[in-house]
Amino acid sequence: MGLMLKGEYLVDDPKPDTDREGEFRRASSVIRHWITMDGPFPWEKGRYHLYAAWNCPWAHRALLARTLLGFEDAIGVSYAKPRRSDQGWIYDKRGQYADRALRVSALHEVYARQSPAYTGRVTVPVLFDKTTQQIVSNESADIVRMLGTLSTKMDLLPAGLAPEVEDWNRLIYSTVNNGVYKAGFARTQDAYDRAVTALFETLDKIEDHLATHDWLAGGVFTEADLRLFPTLARFDVAYHYAFKCNIRRLTDYPNLWRYARRIYHMPGVSETVKFDIYKYGYFSPSELRNPLGIVPKGPVIDWSLD
Ligand SMILES: N[C@@H](CCC(=O)N[C@@H](CS)C(=O)NCC(=O)O)C(=O)O
How many whole angstroms separate alpha carbon 303 and alpha carbon 23? Predict the structure, then answer.
């Protein structure tokens, strides 16, 4: 599920997503153009469209950047249905999961427009150029950085902080953002043990850091905080149980939990968070993890606390 070979969507994806040690390997994004002021993808209000899914944490990065950097009126969004089908990410004809930009019924149709010979995974987020009918980027890290360069509202990468932000980004990507997937998709006990140990080592380290700092880098909200938040928002409702990331909960870490709520209460952020959809998506039927697709009722978590 989710792979295109020379423009053809493969319902049976032949590519294993784990290596020989049973560790999950995320494929690299392959479409990595850039919006600039002077083209080939010039900045224009209303020209670009974001393909997202509420439950995807990588799409969540792009949604956060769109909101916090002030692009809600300039960049439209289509939200895929939270449970993928054998066609991958799909859309309804109308309603909240309709694609009003291109009216496609599956995301692979957007990739096919980009290039009839596209080979690679069909993932969200996608930043699409309606004028050239090309995908600008399917890499969330680039989309966040790119929108940052175009925004006058907030600076997610203040001068002088880039090395510190990059250090956090690297650690958090491999042990936390992707770390929860390494735990949840591990095919061996060793691979799972390694992933969970590294994940909680990093969370413990961040908990210590937040005892004396408000934010990860330089005393201001940066890209590193933006990139950590989607994993924290999904942690207790999804990863703790569905991916067996259960040494501690987010709510067991006083500093991290306070920090996560501080981000949640930033203007516009709570509108990008959908706890019920996270549960529905992460507890999709899966032969390996949840054969019957039953969604748990709990946990009950109060994010409204300041
Ligand atoms: N490197 C990508 C990863 C995106 C990604 O893996 N998205 C997942 C959803 S959370 C997806 O669409 N997976 C579909 C697939 O791999 O078939 C990014 O950060 O933008």
Answer: 33
